[in-house]
Amino acid sequence: MMAAKVQSGNGLAKQESKETVLYGELQLPFKHSYIQGWIYPPFIKQANLDRTASFALRPSDVLIATFPKNGTTWTQKIIQNLHNEHKTGHLTAAQGNLLEIMPWLENTADHGLIDDITGPRYIKTHNSYDFVAYNPNVACKYIYIARNPKDVCVSLWHHCRGFAVFNYAGEFAEFSQLFLEGKVESGDWWVHVKEFYNNARNMNVLFLKYEDMHADGPGCVKKINDFCALPDLSHDQAVSVSEASSFRKMKTDAKSNYSWLDDVRNKKEAPFMRKGTVGDWANYFSEEMSAQFDAKTQSMFQDIKLEFSDGCPK
Question: What tens digit of pLDDT does each residue of 138-147 get?
Answer without folding.
Answer: 999 999 999 9
